[in-house]
Amino acid sequence: MTDDSNVLDQLISRVDDDVLRSRLAHEVDLLRGSRRFGLVFDRHLPESVRLPDHPIRKGIRVALRDESSAETWVVDRFTDRTRDVAVLSGDGGNRHVSELVAVREFGEPIYPGLRSVERIENGPADAPWHVVINGENFHALQALRSTHRGKVDLIYIDPPYNTGNDGWIYNDRYVDQNDRAKSSKWLSFMERRLLIAQELLKPTGVIIVAIGDDEHHRLRMLLDQVFGSENFLVNAIWQGGGSSLSRFHAGGVDYMLGYARDISALTADGVQWRVEKDGLQDVLDAAAVAWNESGQDAEDASRRLSKWWNRNKSKYDPGLGDNVKVDVDGTAIKVGDLGNSLYRPNLRYPISDPTTGITYEPPANGWRFKREVMDEMIDRDRVLFGSRPRLKTPLAEMSMRSVVPSFYRDRRGASQHVAKVLGRKDFPYPKDVEVLTRWISIATVYRPDAIVLDFFGGSGSTAEAVMVLNQRDSGSRQSILVTNNEIGASEAKKLRKADLHPGDPEWEARGVFEYVCRPRISTVVTGERPDGSTYSEGLPANVEMFDLTYLDPGMVRRGHEFESVAPLMWLEGGARGACIDEIPDEGWALTDAYGVLFDVDVLTAFAEAVTAAATSGAPPSVVFVITDSEAEYQQVVERLPVGVDTVQLYEDYLSNYTINIAGGAR
């Protein structure tokens, strides 16, 4: 909305170019809508990505493959029907297509697909497959927004620390440590990805972000803005050694920042899980029986409950029933447990602020004390009323709620582990599998079937950690890892001196996916290194690795890209069992996880098969209907059992990448 008295609006109105004037007005409106308080940074131009394998076509933006210039042009036309020589816009002149590489900015619609590069089946047939995607993580997140919106339990990422020495890439260029805008570029880079990441989390989901000193304070504020400060969980400190502490810099220290998608949903989910699935209900029931058998004598009931626990504790998690007694009202309590780890229905009474009269409902697991004790604390002015009442504790007795005491683990162990896996020592600074296993275990304690996403996958540590944890506790967690095939700044400099560039086989062979991540994951799953030597007995896991590809929307609409879209459908169906990657003669296909209807003329047979699966208690999680007709699509929906999700292809696929393509509002 313009203001005639505003200097900026007056100046913008004098711009002759309609498009430029509109763009400037839009950007100013965005600035006016920015937060008054919080993190302020310049939002830089959208990033771009080079697509070495993308065909050169009329209308697409291109750059020089040899990187001799940073300039880009649009292909206006070709000189003849061979399409060997492109005529470029502006002063680009005529260039042979072999000299060019396609370039796409993040603000442009891009239609991703997946191409399988390695499939390893070494686990149970009914287990979910671990997935590794090699490609630009912003575009991979867009694809996952279509397949996994609201489905992810845990996101763990270890993004570039932006120290000036880690050689991270923004807008297809390494960010120089002397770049005065490197922090705002980094924040723009992170914000675009975190906005999509938030959409992927379940209401009970959690995100953990590792970071160093340089951007820790900025990242904390950015996460507050994206996820809400009320959903902050933890700021853990990892003392990893390696360099000595100095007067000015805490060398060797990393941080783990944790946020909930919705902390109230997460808390309620944890209580419900413990009551229903952790054996807690059995303890509560045993306390009630002991209370009745004792004639409502708390001391005798506690002795009876203790005997029950000693007879049955092998069935439950250690510590579940330790130090448990029966309270005077017949409910189970843990001695000295001020955190109320047992569900306390006897503490679920409301309390009121005697000054304001405001009544507060109890938290999910009840108050800390029984009513008479809480009333006494209120009378003694020992309860602080605010958004949530809490005890007034002397400062000397308070722990730092927001900071978990540091844990120590030498980072050199992670490098030694990867060197052992690969049989070579030339990959620095991988993430530590044992540290990740610990954090994933904590974050998924109530979800042994959790979906764990890492979209800064690097060398593949998160995928290995999930597989190791599953083996240890018989879990069925699924990892989705997004990495890329980038090369470190120093290595890239050497290759360019040898006249090698992105897209050249020699360059790609040294990228982190091909050189480290792919052979590492293959080795830990199969137990055999690429050179044929033995590393281990392997891990009982299934994993498939993909390259992210870029599709032509017209080809997608005409059904000519089904092979590249099929893995996305398999992913949305849970990545279990076989992938429907061919069009069957019957015109439809159905697995235990999902189904695809290719021809509406065979709807009756398909609907009968889906109904039979639903009747047997194993309905497909999603059904894809390939039709351009909205009427046909609705006809299919009406014939399928209630509760089966449906997706119309290819319209839903294409719209996912043309709506909100920038990754969220500013």
TrEMBL record:
<dbReference type="InterPro" id="IPR002052">
    <property type="entry name" value="DNA_methylase_N6_adenine_CS"/>
</dbReference>
<dbReference type="InterPro" id="IPR029063">
    <property type="entry name" value="SAM-dependent_MTases_sf"/>
</dbReference>
<comment type="similarity">
    <text>Belongs to the N(4)/N(6)-methyltransferase family.</text>
</comment>
<dbReference type="Pfam" id="PF01555">
    <property type="entry name" value="N6_N4_Mtase"/>
</dbReference>
<dbReference type="InterPro" id="IPR001091">
    <property type="entry name" value="RM_Methyltransferase"/>
</dbReference>
<protein>
    <recommendedName>
        <fullName>DNA methylase N-4/N-6 domain-containing protein</fullName>
    </recommendedName>
</protein>
<keyword id="KW-0489">Methyltransferase</keyword>
<keyword id="KW-0808">Transferase</keyword>
<dbReference type="InterPro" id="IPR002941">
    <property type="entry name" value="DNA_methylase_N4/N6"/>
</dbReference>
<feature type="domain" description="DNA methylase N-4/N-6">
    <location>
        <begin position="152"/>
        <end position="472"/>
    </location>
</feature>
